[in-house]
Amino acid sequence: MTAREALSRLIKGVHADLGDYRTLRELLDAQFEAALKHRTAVISDVAERITQLTAQLEQRRVERLALAKVLLGKKANLTISAVAARLPANVRTAFDQWWQTLEKQVQECKRLNQRNCDLLMNQQEILRRVMQAGGGDTYAPA
Predict the structure, then answer these.
(1) What are phi and psi of 75, to 5 degrees?
(2) Is the domain 3-133 a CATH 1.10.357 member?
(3) Is 31 buried (19+), middle (13-18) or exposed (0-12) by CB count in 10 A?
(4) Does the pLDDT value for residue 36 go beyond 90?
(5) Residue 77's pLDDT band (boundaries 50, 70, 90)?
């Protein structure tokens, strides 16, 4: 693979990630709404979609690392900054903006994922307490 081909694939991957992180944000919001309303079937469906999407994102991250090795060499410091430094100035500016946007999207999705995790864990804890109240016979037949 030539450096030009590697660079083209890397840029296409970043664009794909930008779209997929927008989708991930939507899914995380849907998951949160479903959790608030205790819609377990929706939660399960959304979780499956999130799992599939994050697998794609991880696959592109691994590919991006391999492409960086093609562009920079195996022993080089493999960073996006090092890759960007090899770009022509007119492309570098756009690439830097895309990358900054991607980093913000990643951080936002991490925050939303933690929010969802906290909600689900709190709901689980409340359910555990309810089930243990009164020695566990709260829902026993009268």
Answers:
(1) -95, 0
(2) no
(3) buried
(4) yes
(5) confident
What does pTM read for this prediction?
0.84
For residues 71, 52, 96, 94, the Cα torsion angle rounded to the nearest 10 degrees is 100
pLDDT in tens, 108-118: 999 999 999 99
Residue type at 106? V
Output the 3-class SS for the chain.
CCHHHHHHHHHHHHHHHHHHHHHHHHHHHHHHHHHHCCCHHHHHHHHHHHHHHHHHHHHHHHHHHHHHHHHHCCCCCCCHHHHHHCCCHHHHHHHHHHHHHHHHHHHHHHHHHHHHHHHHHHHHHHHHHHHHHHHHCCCCCC
